[in-house]
Amino acid sequence: MAIDSNFARDIKERADIVDVISYYLNSVQKKGRRYVAMCPFHDDHDPSLQIDKEKQMFRCYVCDSGGDVFSFVQKYEKCSFMDAIKKVAEIIGYDDPRLHSKIVVKHVDENLVPIYNCLTEIQKFYAYALTTEEGEIARKYLDGRHLSNEQRDKFGLGYAFKDGKMVIKYLQQKGFSLKTIENTGIGLVKTSGIDDNNAGRLIFPIKDHNGQVVGFSARRIVDDDSAKYVNSPETKAFTKSNVLYNYHLAKQTAKHDGYVYVVEGFMDVFALDSIGITSCVALMSTKLTSRHIEMLRALGVEIRLCLDGDNPGQTAMMKIMSQLDEAKLPYRLVSVPQEVRDPDEILKQDGEEKLKTFVNSLVDPFNFAINYYRNVSPLETVENRKKVIIHFLPAIASLKTQLEKDDYIYKLEQATNFSAQAIRNLLKEYTTRQNRNEPDYNVNLEIESTIDVGKVSKQYRRLALAEFSVLKQMFLDKQAIEFYEKNIKYFNDENYRQIANFLIERKDKDEPISTSDITNDIQTSELPNNDQLIKTVSSIAFAKSETYSPTLLEDYYKVILSERSHIHDKTNLQKALEGKSPQEQARIVATYLDRMKIKSSK
Question: What is the domain extent for residue 62?
Fold first, then answer.
């Protein structure tokens, strides 16, 4: 649901964050100029939740929760942003007609409005066609897949008439131009007119995170030589890498359920819906993009990966595992040995109970990977076997009991053919390094032996600290925003970069910039990574007091330029080392280190 920024701001200005949090917590008490309370978002024994009445923000220094009054209610109630607004209004005794409307209008790119309206009308026409005599063939297909009438309505399924000009005539009667119709992606304008590419097929509408139709996937329902699926091309309204099928519905229930299933296709979504699992999205392929990761992060729940059980599906799960690990998202994987069918097939052949058992057969990443290396893709080289062990050392070290550690070590021994004692020795070395606060192992073993990879991560931290300091200055004075636009231009950290863009948008307004206003702008923007952006703003709100200083800005700018240069050098070094012999790598690294010494001495 799209929310108007001014509407949300009106409610927030009438609310006091201390009063609203006190409505939920009886532990709120004044301490100095701020308030503290027992944090409800982790097992808190000492008051670690801080509330700033002046800035109308809260932050927990233990679990890193933070934000404004709406953020708190959203997290506490596990509800949508709009529901949080309504709850805050209820707590403070405020009423407004806009609270009772189904949709609060938000600005949409004017160029997209006619395309969106046209896509909506196309979907309505397809839904109507499914109910006609010609549409019976599609209805019979859906009956064979056990899709109820309720599910057909819920997911907006339809049928495209064999005469591809019928939908075009309908749209023209509705006032849409041929150019607008073409821009929806259902067909190309030719000298003979325009025909529907989806003609004679079952239709699956594809919707964005707000529930707006942006494209279609059309399935063949007769046995011929045509393609099984015809998908909308990328258009101004539709970018495949930005869409997770059914996300707009899944996000409404995922936070309550505490999880979201990620499956491969539409039919798998329908299968899980049949057994009562509504928090489910589909990739529409086996590729997970960075945008998808942001969308999943925004849900703040456990991801349950459930791709096909055949070798390609399991290999795709392994690839996605590394992406989720890098993104630091919590996840488990559905895994049943020897089961190669997808959820739709299991439901169709064995029924609901079997599917329920299957989707609840969840394993952690370690056990899934071990099964994969033992059954799907055995490790063949010594280097790859080493990489697997090094990758899982942090997981083993984090286990609480020796029995658990021994179990992991035994499984690694079976998968890698390295002795349990050798793995224990590596674990001991890893633990020692951690206790000394030394850098983690790097999976690129040859590079690790020739260069201190810890320096790279340290320099990234220096860059992040400098960027964060500039961002704080930008909140203090609009001159810092102008300095950023003129000199720095962009931040390496994506979250900082997005917040900077919000600050730039507010720069020319007459009113001063506050962390509360920026938080409001972020929430109503409906970005997938809203939660992380709001946490960052709350960190700025509770950061050590600092005044605007052009001198400090210049100092931070110099650090940023320096660190960008170092990172560029190291990126080039990594490329130069690729494919070289250990002797040649050593020579390249020695030259690089000499050059760094010369740079640092200047």
Answer: 5-100
